[in-house]
Amino acid sequence: MLELLDLRERGERLEPSRFETDPTVTETVRGILERVRAEGDVALLDLASRFDGASLSSVIVSPEELERAEAETPGELKAAIGALIERLRDLHSRQLPPEWWDERDGVRFGEIVRPLRAVGCYVPGGRAVYPSSVCMTVVPAVVAGVDEITLCTPPQADGSIPAPVLYAARSAGATRVIKSGGAQAVGALAFGTASVPRVDRIVGPGNAYVTEAKRQVAGIVGIDGLAGPTELAVVADEAADPTLVALDLIAQAEHDPEARTFLISTDPSTVSRIGDALELALGGAGRREIIDAALQHMRAVLVRDLEQAAEVVNDVAAEHLQIQLADPRTFLARVRNAGAIFLGPWSAVPFGDYGVASNHVLPTAGTARFASGLRATDFVNVRSVVEMSADAAGRLSPETSTIARNEGLVGHAAAMDARKERA
To answer: Which of 11, 259, 294, 337 lies 20 to 30 Å (CA to CA) from residue 98?
Structure first.
């Protein structure tokens, strides 16, 4: 079950997974984006029929559908979604940068923070229904103060959107919901159609076609990142409960048959006990086809000490890191690269998936080396503002003009020197 990689006596470094572009997917997506740009809603309706089997008269979710979804969503689920939204509001409200101002020697300067005008949130369908992903993408945009929030998600074959998804969209604060998935939804958000307003940034995970579409429109609009298969690294020692670790590994595996998981330990017996517990826990697992496929990618990594364990963690830069050590906080000081980090035996990664102190839209494919999880700051711009007095312009012009002339930018120098002459 567990492929063992023993690095204790080796200098080998692990490479993170990488986002790889399939040329066939690239060409397919390029064609879809060109159709959406040229044909707008006509292309969206045709592609919904072709890819989703849905015959639609409009891609816009109607007010009546939203009302019906509220009635059809069970009360217990409504309460859970409401609590999730409140947790996310609290989390993301802490992330917004403050505006600030200072004044020094006649120069008043600062930064102002402004929300984006419009954003698009993509929520996948297919294997499961994801009201949690609705909340994860919409709530930080609402907290940031974005005016227009368009949510796109693929329709079911009967043309409907699952009631919990619509209920979450309405409760979280989406402006509109669009029945469109795949690359065509990304194209609609990037280029705009009669029904889908053009946005400034697109966020949210999706399949290979969605990810490739985001890659192709990046620069036309902003994107949150390129999503690869979900990832988990677990660092465990003798103090770890093998059954809890096994259940956490299964929980991650049931996301995606391509899920990547690393179990990292200094202790061979810990790996063995977790392997035995995993075999036992699989007997009660659902979604076995997905889990079994994902577990084929799992590796157990034996390391000399916790210093080497930290090197492995930072090398693989996993989407999720779970630290199941007797002293997880000390190890945390060595961690540089991970999307979200969970400390100790009680902090199961799925809690983060449902908004307990974390957003679940996180960097994958090694991008945790330079990227963060989805944040309220992704939905604002920070602008520098400069206001100079005449005295400050006259005083600073000689040195700044010297640099400009040295760079061959005599027009720059002249513009600054003119201020000195008039000061």
So the answer is: 337
Angle at the Cα of 252 from the Cα atoms of 249 and 253, rounded to 5 degrees: 85
Task: Give yes or no for residue 48 having a pLDDT over 80.
Answer: yes
Per-residue pLDDT reduced to its tens digit, 218-230: 999 999 999 889 9
- With beta carbons less than 8 A apart as the criterion, state whether 150 and 119 touch: yes
Q: Which residues pair with 100 in a beta bridge?
A: 111
Say if residue 126's pLDDT is above 70.
no
The token pair that represents 326 in the structure block: 């007797």
- DSSP string across 237-263: -TTS-HHHHHHHHHHHHTT-TT-EEEE
Q: What domains lie within the chain, and their CATH numbers?
A: 23-100+115-223 (3.40.50.1980), 228-372 (3.40.50.1980), 389-422 (no CATH)
Q: What is the pLDDT of residues 263-273, one digit of tens each?
A: 999 999 999 99
Residues 6+ apart with CB under 8 A from 218: none
Exposure pattern of 294-317 as b/e (b: 16+ CB <10 Å)? bbebbebbbbeebebbbbbbbbbb
Residues linked to residue 103 through DSSP beta bridges, in sequence order: 108
* Integer Cα distance of 329 and 212 in angstroms: 38
Tokens of 402: 């010297």
Q: Where are the alpha helices (DSSP H) in 115-207?
A: 131-144, 163-172, 182-191
Residue 148 token pair: 């227009």
Residues recognised as catalytic: 319-320
In the 8-state DSSP scheme, what is residue 124?
-
Average pLDDT over residues 69-84: 98
Q: Is the pLDDT of residue 1 over 80?
A: no
